């Protein structure tokens, strides 16, 4: 991916890409192609701040205290 932006927000490291970067990455693909999320189920986009858009899934993915990736399904 082209521009990955890192910022510190309330003591938590947030990594992401801009909406523009995502649009540019997707522009070469056909509109009817399905995007696989490796087992995650897309839920919605939610604006969290003036310049922060969060992609939400029906699962919560996080690093535990040992740095192990954990996934919990949200009902």
From TrEMBL:
Protein name per UniProt: Uncharacterized protein
């Amino acid at each position: 991916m082209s521009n990955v932006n890192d910022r510190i927000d309330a003591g938590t490291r947030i990594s992401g890409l801009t909406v523009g970067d995502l649009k540019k990455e997707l522009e070469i693909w056909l509109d009817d192609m399905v995007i696989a999320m490796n087992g995650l189920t897309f839920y919605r986009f939610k604006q969290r701040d003036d310049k922060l858009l969060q992609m939400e899934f029906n699962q919560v993915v996080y690093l535990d205290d040992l740095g192990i990736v954990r996934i919990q399904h949200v009902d």
